[in-house]
Amino acid sequence: MMEQEENDETKGFIKVDVEGGDKTMWLKLKLKLTTLITNLLETKINEKSDLSTDEEIKRATANLIEFANAKLEKPSIENQKLLVEIDLALVSKAKCHAETRKLNAEAEKLEIENITNKLKLAIGLAKVLGHSTQDESIILFVKGIEEISYIFQDNKLTGTE
User: Fold this and answer.
1) In terms of residue numbers, what domain contains 50?
2) What is the torsional sign of CA 4, 5, 8, 10?
């Protein structure tokens, strides 16, 4: 029963169990050692905050744990930031590719229109030449060109009106 009372009184403090040949002597030393440790923990070591050794140890431990947790969270936050930057870069790249495809399509459309205009001019010149001759091979050639020129009428080739 005495040990139970002793445990209740010293709850929260360090328990020291020491044994030797003389149990009475060890009991006295145990009491002195426990008192020494208790006094050490209750000593005021920080004059500014008026905290005891025990309170300073608890405060330092809490600060250390908080610091460690912050350090552990930092890579996670940095990784999230890096993932967002990668996503933005990919979106920017996709937008650049879309703009490039649009510019290429517009350039291709202009090239087709230029080729179409050149072909219309060449067909027109061939018709004029064909109407000014009596050579049957040229007249047949011009008739073939007139049939081909149908696809250029009303801009059927380019799809524009």
Assistant:
1) 43-115
2) negative
Q: Which tokens in the block code for residue 39?
A: 């006094």
CB within 8 Å of 7: residues ≥ 6 apart = 15
Q: pLDDT higher for 35 or 52?
A: 35
* CA gap 18, 13 in Å, rounded: 16
Q: What is the DSSP letter of 98?
A: H
Q: Which pair of tokens denotes residue 123?
A: 């067909």
pLDDT digits (tens, 9 = 90+) for 65-113: 888 888 877 778 888 888 899 999 999 999 999 999 999 999 999 999 8
Contact 127, 140 (CB under 8 A): no
Rounded CA separation 49/55 (Å): 10
Structurally, the chain folds into a number of domains equal to 1
